[in-house]
Amino acid sequence: MLYQKICNRVGVGLYTLSLFTLSFLSDGCAGQSERKVDSPTLIVEAESFISNSGNISVVNEKKNVTAVQTKDDDAWLNYKINVLLPGRYTIRLYAKNKSDREAVCWIEDHIDNKDGKTYNVSGKIIVKANEHESANYIQTESTPLDASQHYLKLHIDKGAVIIDKLTFTLISTDVSLPAVSYSKSDGKEWKLVWNDEFETNGLPDPSRWNYDIAGNYASWGNHEAQCYTIGRKENAKVENGKLVITAVKEDLEGKRYSSARLISRATWQYGRIEVRARLPRGRGTWPAIWMMPGGWSFKDGNWPDVGEIDIMEHVGHDPNIIHASAHSRDYQWQAGNQKTGVVNIPGVTENFHSYILEWSSEIIKVSVDDSCYFTYKNEGLGETKWPYNKPFYLILNVAIGGAWGNEKGIDDNAFPQSMDIDYVRIYQKK
Fold first, then answer.
1. Which of 24, 291, 346, 372 is deepest in the core (most CB within 10 A)?
2. What SS3 string covers the chain?
3. Which of 34, 308, 350, 358 is the catalytic position?
4. Considering the domain boundaries, does residue 179 fall inside one?
5. Which of 138, 172, 206 marks a domain boundary?
6. pLDDT digits over 235-278, tens only?
7. pTM for the whole thing?
């Protein structure tokens, strides 16, 4: 169901796409529940979503009112809209919450933005508990939106809500839009060459991912406490549009914990590697997003000479501190001279962030949400310092304990703990 309202006294036509209506509202044609406005308003009907996750149903509570009811935490609704005018918008979410627990919603602009970024455009939208009246709205201001086609995800991270619609009312065109970085597949600089959006529930796609268990009996290289497993949903599964890697407190093959370490079947030499993830919490956890050379095995024993690129490391006893590093024969952590960068990102265990590597023959750059905090330039001094001119594969894992993760012990009461991954996207220069 789409809104089809327009006022004749406004000298513009109705611009309609398949999933939304843009109407110019004036004094004589404001909707029943709409405040009178002079700026164009984009109205998105709740049930016009093009994809979703979680337990969601379409309901007709009253005549001519069709809404969407979510029943699970971590649900989302995906809408396709076309923003005609760039600027900042007032966002209204028309929703109610009949449960005894407040619901937390937010809106993600997650693909095809011209700036190439994925970001939260609304902040938290709280739908209070026991709000039974229909057509109530919660209002917030958006970050600037470019004039282009957008795919918006309405996330319901907590609670169960009934949603009628979203409206976007332009309030200012005099804003500074984000700089163009061309990081998407339709950009001028990068081309998408490999990705996993984790759209099919079950085990990770075996055509894209393999499991690494080679170092279990040696406790890996860091004296870690977990046993990595193969094809076990308790440790690695795709669910509700996310890859979930979970560390579990259990006795398994002589270890006190189980977890998973996934490695990509593909390798790449240079490019932009982007992983959007939410990290586990708790003392003893050590999640990582990193890369090793194609064909390398733990059994080879020639680390760090072969090279290692760490896009993201986080240890639970030092929350919100994100590390990126490059290891080689001459620069590595055992000597305390690895090339590294550190940044404080509040809320990494509550919110998703994009962890990004841009890598060429000349430079390694690591960013969080396109904010660069680590740069290492090729010094031209040979393989012992720069072993990064060859294909590398991607690794996603949650380790427990080890030389770094166990510095302040392991909190057994914190488990299970998961790293949730929204997507993995690999770009290379055109």
1. 291
2. CCCCCCCCCCCCCCEEECCEEEEECCCCCCCCCCCCCCCEEEEEEHHHCCEEECCEEEEEEECCEEEEEECCCCEEEEEEEECCCCEEEEEEEEEEECCCCCEEEEEEEEECCCCCCCEECCCCEEECCCECCCCCEEEEECCCECCCEEEEEEEEEECCCEEEEEEEEEEECCCCCCCCCCCCCCCCCEEEEEEECCCCCECCCCCCEEECCCCHHHCHHHCECEEECCCCCCCEEEECCEEEEEEEEEEECCEEEEECEEEECCCECCEEEEEEEECCCCCCEEEEEEEEECCCCHHHCCCCCCCEEEEEECCCCCCCEEEEEEECCCCCHHHCCCEEEEEECCCCCCCCEEEEEEECCCEEEEEECCEEEEEEECCCCCCCCCCCCCCEEEEEEEEEEHHHHCCCCCCHHHCCEEEEEEEEEEEEEC
3. 308
4. no
5. 172
6. 999 998 999 999 999 999 999 999 999 999 999 999 999 999 99
7. 0.61
